[in-house]
Design brief:
Layout (H helix, E strand, L loop, with lengths): L18 E6 L5 E5 L19 E8 L10 E3 L2 E5 L4 E6 L5 E6 L4 E7 L3 E6 L3 E6 L2 E7 L9 E3 L2 E5 L4 E6 L5 E6 L6 E3 L5 E4 L2 E6 L2 E5 L6 E6 L15 E8 L2 E6 L3 E6 L4 E7 L7 E2 L3 E5 L5 E5 L5 E5 L11 E3 L2 E5 L4 E6 L5 E6 L10 E3 L2 E5 L4 E7 L1
Antiparallel strand pairs: 1-2, 1-16, 3-35, 4-5, 5-6, 6-7, 8-9, 9-10, 10-11, 12-13, 13-14, 14-15, 17-18, 18-19, 19-20, 21-22, 22-23, 23-24, 25-26, 26-27, 27-28, 29-30, 30-31, 31-32, 33-34, 34-35
Length: 387
């Protein structure tokens, strides 16, 4: 869903381990917080029993990919960002490379695209925009950004680590407006957050709230809490919302870091439910359930209508699972060993397990051009197709 163009303008978490990186609002410098230093070995995996047939259809290779570099899907095109600033567009049906470009600097946030304009954010705090693989413009940000820009309605929207939201003209890169959330929280999560279009509203995760903004000027239309800060220190009080989210019929379901999973009616700006949950990766869902993991790798399904627990399985504990993808009859996760796990949406039973290149799955699985695509830390891109 895209915004209508404004007539007034021209057309945290390396290897998902126990270390969580956060950025200080005072200049957005980074610090590390430990959530337990003892490494717990995962349970041995049971032999793989193939219930759901899946075959590897294609592979591609790009430079190494970090955990905050979210890929983008537009039609049959998959666009990927690499740590070193390389941006690559692939045909999701075949893995064929469509174009490759460089942002000229390492990247801190992944890809936002509308199919015409493609954007990333560099560690030099710059938005870099490409049109069909050629650099179009660059714009300086006032702070770091770890969330992929949103390209919609002829504009580029950016959520920065100082909790500011800005809009830029898609053709020229000229800044159109900036809205700054009032201060209070000294830390933010160095992790991809929530930034999306819902009808003609810009929906943004700001601290533990979903906020609906007017895309023309950034003014606040509504705000709905998912989690409230708690704990005795700044790290424990982090409740930033993390991507990915589940969207269905105007309802957005999301996760607040180490605090809660909840659903918000974005047409009215009303919280429908919120349930305690201790995970740090995003969620996905279908019309019946929302799926996600706890920080220890327990996989949960919550009923979409009221947030009550539908099922829970612990066989993948301590495998540092990615955010899930709902695909057909399964929910799919990648792990820190490059394995791909297919679980039943109905009860969490195992359906299949696949291998990639042995390095960690760094981004949530995506579906593009009929392929299930997994991206690894070593830059392996793997396209699988159910039989």
């Amino acid at each position: 869903m895209n915004f209508k163009p404004n007539s007034r303008v021209a057309q945290v978490v390396p290897r998902l381990c126990a270390i969580i990186f956060v950025a200080s609002l005072a200049g957005c410098s980074t610090v590390s917080g430990w959530f337990g230093s003892k490494k717990i070995e995962p349970k041995p995996l049971a032999p793989n029993v193939v219930v759901l047939g899946v075959r590897q259809a294609w592979t591609a290779k790009i430079p190494s990919v970090g955990f905050s570099l979210t890929p983008a899907v537009q039609g049959d095109t998959l666009t990927l960002a690499s740590d070193d600033g390389t941006v690559t567009a692939l045909d999701g049906r075949t893995g064929r490379e469509l174009w490759r470009a460089s942002a000229g600097a390492p990247l801190s946030a992944g890809v936002g695209t509308d199919g015409t304009l493609t954007t990333v954010v560099s560690r030099n705090n710059e938005i870099v925009a490409f049109a069909q693989g050629r650099q179009s413009w660059r714009a300086k940000l006032s702070a770091e950004a770890f969330t992929a820009p949103l390209v919609a309605g002829g504009r580029v929207f950016v959520l920065a680590a100082d909790r500011s939201v800005s809009a830029y003209d898609g053709q020229s890169g000229r800044k159109l407006w900036t809205q700054q959330r009032p201060g209070g929280e000294p830390l933010v999560l160095r992790h991809s957050g929530v930034l999306l279009a819902m009808g003609n509203t810009l929906v943004v995760g700001l601290s533990g709230r979903l906020s609906g903004l007017d895309p023309d000027n950034g003014s606040l239309r509504w705000e709905a809490p998912v989690a409230a800060p708690r704990g005795t220190n700044d790290v424990e009080r982090l409740v930033d919302l993390v991507g990915r989210v589940s969207r269905l019929d105007g309802v957005i379901c999301t996760r607040a870091f180490q605090a809660a999973v909840g659903c918000v009616d974005a047409t009215r700006g009303q919280t429908l439910w919120s349930r305690p949950a201790s995970g740090y990766t995003g969620v996905d869902g279908d019309d019946m359930r929302i799926f996600g993991t706890e920080s220890n790798g327990v996989v949960n399904a919550w009923r979409r209508r009221d947030g009550e627990r539908a099922w829970s399985v612990d066989r993948l504990q301590y495998r540092h699972l990615s955010a899930p993808l709902v695909l057909g009859r399964s929910v799919v996760f990648g792990d820190a060993d490059g394995l791909v796990h297919f679980l039943s949406r109905e009860d969490g039973a195992p359906l299949n397990r696949l291998t990639t290149d042995g390095s960690a799955i760094t981004t949530a699985p995506v579906e593009v051009g009929g392929s299930l695509v997994l991206v690894t830390k070593n830059g392996g891109v793997f396209g699988f197709v159910p039989d």
